[in-house]
Amino acid sequence: MIAKITLHEFPVMSLSFIRFALAALILLPFLLKYDRKQLKIKKQHFLKLVWVGLLWTTFSIGFGYQGLTLTTAIDASVLSLTIPIISVLISWWFLKDKIYIINLLGVAASLAGALAIIGVPIILSGNLADSNLLGNGLIILAGISGVIGSIMAQKLFKIYPVVFITWFAFLVGAITFAVPAGLDYYHNPAWMSQVTLLGLLGLLFIIILSSVCAYFLYSWGLEKTNVVQSNLFQYLEPAVTATLAVPLLQERISFSFIIGTCLVVLGVYWGTFGKPHHHHPHFKHHRF
């Protein structure tokens, strides 16, 4: 929601670069309490850390921001609910976690709901813009990238401090977005002078709360629990987003959106039924 408003004033790549560059600088002092041995990266772990950074920041946020510019904040928030389902499927496929019939029913329900929100029924009738379809697809790709990065990061949390992995991911994000951000400025150097106080407040919110606090808490949650548990805060996100997006962004709630949302919520509950999160607290992941 905040990102959607802020993206009205910041180019996608520039916002991503500023977000992670400043977030990395903010976290840097917190690394001082660790000795060099704790922060020394072993050769066999370097590429894994880079991939975690790419999946968590470059791909997840890059796809997510670009998707937000092409779709509505409400659709994006509900489509992000599919992340726990993606977590279940990837954990089952790669980590050999158990999956039950009710979980498969949940996957099917969530898929049907996501397709309804993406607009497949409407696009078949020729009434959905291609940009909406692309935007919704990018939101799902962002979720998949984040889940894969989280699974890769879990093993690294046993070796390196949480704050170090979070900082390293921010550093990777800042480096990868630096050149595209420079191109933003080259093509439109006047964009900086057009940023308002609202845009700056949105940027501050994204850096402090959506980056430093949320990434760190999510990483800490992954260290203590698992990927599925860490993504469950999203049950409440669509309701909050819809409440704000309708009056502030003039977005509309369609009938297919309501049906799709119900299917996704039901599917997420069924899809994660019997998983450890039914008995443990969950932690908040970063959002766009």
Account of the protein in words:
- The structure is a single chain.
- The chain is mainly α.
- α4 crosses α10 and α10 (162-187) runs antiparallel to α11 (197-224).
- The chain has one domain (2-29, 42-278).
- The model is unreliable at 227-233 and 276-287 (pLDDT under 50).
- The protein contains 14 helices and no strands.
Helix content: over 70%
Q: From N to C, what is the helix and strand string?
A: HHHHHHHHHHHHHH
Multimeric state: single chain
Instruction: Give a quick account of the main beta sheet: strands, pairing sense, barrel closure.
Output: none
Q: What is the radius of gyration?
A: 19 Å
Return the average pLDDT rounded to an integer. Answer: 76
Write the layout of secondary structure elements.
Layout: H1 2-6, H2 12-27, H3 36-39, H4 43-70, H5 73-79, H6 83-94, H7 101-118, H8 120-124, H9 130-156, H10 162-187, H11 197-224, H12 227-230, H13 237-249, H14 255-271
Helix pairs in contact: 2-4, 2-10, 2-11, 4-9, 4-10, 5-13, 6-9, 7-14, 10-11
Short description:
With 288 residues, this protein is an all-alpha fold.
Attribute tags:
mainly alpha, 14 helices, flat, 288 residues
